[in-house]
């Protein structure tokens, strides 16, 4: 009894500015190809059931291209596996904020896909002796969230859900940073389920013997560099989907090849260096990349670089790197400012981004706005301003 577990495709995401010859955002095309490859793999594996654990789309109003593309992929899946149950739940990205908006996910019911958008659904498949409790993100946020327990009427009991399990995110990150919901492990009743198929955490990750995050199919998080580092911390298994044997609990990782590399180069510490020396170090870091940076996603951090040094750099060379890569982020970090307060009292002066973050964290907001997301966007904008002021 095999179950295919896919999560977080994020179709329709747009990043950076390059387009394909047909006029599609290049990263949107990359993510679409990753989903196509995953569907190819699932069809080849011929599982008994397929689940998609949320965030099929990156937004509640995806592009026409993303909608048509997703429909064709589910159509391929349905034609290849006509009798296999396919279950899709809504994540935080494809959940409308108002009931009146409606969910695009219901479109896939036309292909006999079982969809849960706001209310939990307990789906029974007697011919497989299988029950799937499909719990979309909105259900766990409701005033009366469902008890995450099986009914124990079928042999194979599967929980399909989209949230963060408390303590499973990397240190310094929480699910609410990404619009998610945090669930205590005890609320999962892990011992009662045959398998728990989770979405929302973009790194493929085992929570318990019978519980996994499948991870996203490509790098699509708000902090792509942190996501890449988290992949390394988890063993660099790569992006992909899972094939689960519900009898033996054996889980096979099926890797989806990345369209391009995400490279975080060794940082440069520019304190006391001239602009010419920093130029040399930047070029040295670029030359160290096997195969070059062409069409790749690259970040290079330069620490302790004063503004006057940043302005004197060879910006024509930097523009060349940016033109070569799909995305080249030269991330300047200015030296920290300090001041003395009172007699003998050395305390660090808050940076402007820190002051802005503190203000945003205390500012009154309408109830429908997610504060963590609001503060995160403010930090991103301030980081951009800081880099621009430094000439980056």
Task: Write structural notes for this entry.
It is a single chain. Helix content is 29%, strand content 22%. It contains 10 helices and 20 strands. Helix 9 runs antiparallel to helix 10 (371-389). It is globular, with a radius of gyration of 23 Å. Helix 2 links the parallel strand 2 and strand 3. It has helices at 26-45, 64-80, 137-141, 185-188, 224-233, 275-287, 307-311, 315-324, 352-362, 371-389; strands at 2-6, 49-52, 86-89, 114-116, 121-125, 130-135, 156-162, 164-165, 182-183, 195-199, 205-208, 211-213, 240-245, 251-255, 262-264, 268-269, 297-303, 327-333, 338-340, 346-348. It starts with a strand and ends with a helix. The protein has a 6-stranded mixed sheet. It has a 6-stranded mixed sheet with strand order 5-6-7-10-12-11. Strands 15, 16, 17 and 18 form a 4-stranded parallel sheet that branches. The protein has 392 residues and is α/β, with parallel strands linked by helices.
């Amino acid at each position: 009894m095999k179950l295919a577990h896919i999560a977080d495709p994020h179709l329709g995401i747009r990043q950076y500015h390059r387009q394909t010859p047909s006029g599609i955002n290049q990263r949107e095309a990359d993510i679409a190809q990753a989903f196509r490859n995953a569907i190819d793999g699932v069809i080849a594996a011929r599982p008994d059931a397929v689940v998609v654990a949320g965030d099929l789309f990156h937004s509640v109003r995806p592009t026409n291209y993303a909608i048509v593309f997703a429909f064709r992929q589910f159509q391929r899946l349905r034609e290849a596996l006509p009798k296999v149950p396919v279950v899709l739940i809504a994540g935080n990205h494809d959940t409308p904020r108002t009931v009146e908006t409606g969910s695009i996910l219901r479109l896939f019911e036309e292909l006999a896909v079982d969809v849960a958008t706001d209310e939990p659904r307990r789906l029974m498949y007697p011919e497989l002796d299988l029950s799937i409790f499909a719990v979309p993100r909105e259900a766990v946020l409701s005033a009366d969230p469902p008890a995450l327990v099986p009914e124990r009427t079928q042999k194979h009991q599967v929980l399909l859900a989209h949230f963060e399990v408390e303590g499973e995110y990397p240190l310094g990150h929480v699910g609410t940073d990404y619009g998610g919901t945090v669930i205590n492990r005890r609320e999962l009743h892990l011992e009662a389920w045959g398998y728990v198929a989770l979405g929302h955490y973009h790194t493929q990750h085992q929570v318990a013997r019978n519980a996994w995050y499948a991870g996203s199919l490509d790098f699509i998080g708000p902090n792509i560099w942190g996501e890449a580092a988290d992949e390394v911390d988890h063993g660099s298994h790569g992006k992909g989907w899972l094939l689960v044997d519900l009898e033996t609990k054996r889980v096979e990782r099926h890797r989806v090849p990345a369209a391009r590399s995400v490279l975080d180069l060794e940082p440069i510490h520019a304190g006391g260096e001239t602009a010419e020396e920093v130029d040399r170090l930047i070029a040295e870091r670029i030359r160290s990349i096997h195969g070059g940076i062409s069409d790749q996603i690259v970040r290079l951090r330069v620490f302790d670089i004063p503004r006057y040094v940043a302005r004197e750099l060879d910006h024509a060379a930097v523009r060349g790197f940016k033109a070569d890569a799909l995305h080249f982020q030269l991330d300047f970090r200015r030296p920290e400012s300090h001041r003395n307060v009172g007699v003998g009292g050395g305390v660090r002066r808050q940076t402007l981004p820190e002051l802005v973050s503190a203000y945003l964290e205390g500012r009154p907001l309408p109830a429908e706005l997610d504060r963590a997301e609001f503060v995160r966007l403010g930090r991103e904008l301030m980081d951009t301003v800081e880099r621009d002021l430094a000439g980056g």
